Each structure stands twice: as structure tokens, then as C-alpha cells.
Amino acid sequence: MSMPSKYIIHPYKPMPGTNTLVLIIAALVVLIGTNLLFAETITDNKGRKIIFGTPYSRIISLYGAHTENLFFIGCQKQVIGVSVNDTYPKDVHKKIKFSYHDGPEKFIAFKPDLVLIRPMIDNGYPKLVQRLEKSGITVVSLQPGSIDKMYDYWLTLGKLTGHLESAAQMVDDFKQKIKTISALTNKISPKKRVYFEAIHTRMKTFTQNAMPIFALETAGGINVAADAKASRNTNIAIYGKERILSKAARIDVFLAQKGVMNAVTIDQIKKEPGFKVIKAVKSNQIYLIDEDIVSRPVPRLYKGVITIGRLLYPDIFTKAKY
User: Fold this and answer.
1) Cβ neighbours for 196, distance < 8 A, ≥ 6 positions apart
2) Domain formed by 187-319, architecture
3) DSSP element (H, E) containing 236
4) CA distances (Å), 174 to each of 146, 168, 303, in order?
5) I need a surface site. Which of 8, 152, 165, 185 has the fewest CB within 10 A?
6) Domain 41-169 has CATH 3.40.50.1980
7) Which phi and psi angles does 154 have, rounded to 5°?
8) Are 224 and 247 in contact (CB under 8 A)?
9) Residue 224: which residues within 8 A CB-CB, separation 6 or more?
10) Is it true that 41-169 and 187-319 share their CATH fold?
């Protein structure tokens, strides 16, 4: 496709006697014009508008989902540092470890051109963020709150790193896998009703648009806490024991994420005062699932869907091809 004439950059032909300074200025104008012509613009969760002409090449990721996605789309060499809590994929142990508790000097010393964070860090550690930005380091805060936003988030990572094609392929592959599973689970009747615990303390569950609920419903489950309302603009909701017990007879399966956010055991759930009346507790239908495969906006969310499907409908998911 030919470029519109107004955007064509013609070779600069200096007039006789033109001095060196003029030549340098002319070259800079051409260079800047080229970068602006091919610039990308993204807006992060904090409302920052980031305009960049070339992909970022020295990236520090302070959120495990960012790290996992960057590795998945082929940015291993561009990632120079990861969060101290990152464990996946296995090659993250080769990267320098960073924490938002570290002083800004540690970040600055490694000369990153991009630090990827999430809103929790933006809100909780503004001085660190401000210092990094004052030092000329681009800071981008991202964390999608729904599946549709997850796809946009993956594409944004692709733009920032110059791996947009790989990110787009990741989106397409994931959508196709979900379509295949949905075709299988749409035929299931009756479907099992599930209470999905987010945090055992204060009896917290997930909001209806949260990724764990997407995983549950894609796997053929029905969320009995669909009326849960978000707490503090998150995808977590305080549901309360009384509301859970009011639906005790309808809960076929009690599912709980397990990990840093919810260090719970099946025995703890069984022995929770009042829980003996819950149908799932009576029938021993209590299951734990790794929070990393249901609560993070990463391709492994598909693994979370399959894992839940096998728990709810072992016969169907064992025989099915997906």
C-alpha cells in the first residue's frame, strides 16, 4: 500500500554552503517525524496516555500475569526483571528479582525503559512510581477486570513490546479453545450449582464478571452467588455466612481457590461452624483449585476451565476431545 504523499519523507538535499548544524537539525526532524508517523498510543488503568515510536526493550514486570504473558508472546529477552513472587514459567528464575518494596535506586540502576505494574501498586506505592517517572522510566499500570478486557490487555502488551502479531494469535487461540469447550458444556443438563470461594475469611466470593466465574460457567457450572456485589471496585465480594447458608440446599459443589490469597484446606471448610447443612459438604463435594489458573488474566485460564470441568463432570470431560 502506498503512503499518502503528505507523509512521504523526501531525501534532504542541502544547498551549497549549508553548515553542519543545519544538517543535524534536518536529520533530527526526519527521525522524529518517522517515529511520530509510526507511533503507538495506549492508555493504562490509571489513565496515563503513553505514546511510543519503538517497542520497549528493557522491561521490569512487577505482576506475575504480566510476566507470564510476556514470556508467552516471546519477550523473554526484553524482560530484564520480574517480581520476587514470580514462579512461572520456569525460566523466570533467571531474571533479576524486584519488589515494589525496593527503593527506586535499585530499579534505576538496571536502566529499564518500561516498568509494568498493576493498580494495587499504583495506589499503594505512589512515591516509587513518581520517582521512576521522574527518572525518565515509562510506568504502565494494567490489570483487566473481565474477559473482554483481558483480550485488549494481551494486545496492549503486544503493542508495548513489538509482539502484536503473537499477542493477537494468543487471543485467537484462546477464543477457539473456549468455543470448543462451550460447545461441549452447553449440552449439559442439569448443570451443577457451585459456590466459588475467593477468600475464606469473611466469606468472600467473586463478582459475576470475574475470571474465576467465567472459568466456572465455561466449564458448565452455575454460580449460586451471582448476586454478589463488588467490594472496593475489585472482583471480590463479601458474601457472608448467612447468605451462603441460605442457599445451602442448592450448593451441589463447594469450590475454593487456593494460594496466597486463600490459604484454606478442605478440612477447614468442612469444620466451619454451620457449614454441615450445605449440600456439597454433606456429600463431600468440596474441591480446591490453584488460584493461578483461575484468577489471573493469562492463557492458563483455559487450564482452569478444564480443571473445573473435570471436577464437575469427570465422565464428560474424560471422554471429550478438546
Assistant:
1) 205, 206, 212, 213, 216, 223, 225, 255, 256, 257
2) 3-Layer(aba) Sandwich (3.40)
3) strand 236-238
4) 15, 10, 11
5) 8
6) yes
7) -60, -40
8) yes
9) 193, 194, 195, 247, 250, 251
10) yes
pLDDT of residue 34: 44
pLDDT tens-digit series, residues 132-174: 999 999 999 999 989 999 999 999 999 999 999 999 999 999 9
3-class SS string, 121-184: HHHHCHHHHHHHHHCCCEEEECCCCCHHHHHHHHHHHHHHHCCHHHHHHHHHHHHHHHHHHHHH
| Cβ neighbour number for residue 304 with a 10 Å cutoff | 26
Residue count (the chain):
322
Among residues 95, 97, 100, the alpha carbon closest in space to that of 76 is found at 95
Phi and psi at 204, nearest 5°, equal -100, 140
Query: Would you kindly state where each structural domain of the chain is located, as residue ranges?
Result: 41-169, 187-319
Residues contacting residue 264 through CB under 8 Å, at least 6 positions apart:
197, 200, 256, 258, 288
Per-residue cell: 156: 496492549
Question: Peptide bond before 126: cis, by omega within 30 degrees of 0?
Answer: no
Which three three-digit cell numbers place residue 205? 466470593
**Could you tell me which residue, 312 or 234, shows the higher pLDDT?**
312
In this predicted model, what pLDDT tens digit does every residue of 48-74 receive, in sequence order? Answer: 999 999 999 999 999 999 999 999 999
Query: Can you give the pTM of this predicted structure?
Result: 0.85
Lookup: cell for 138: 515509562
C-alpha cell at 166: 503473537
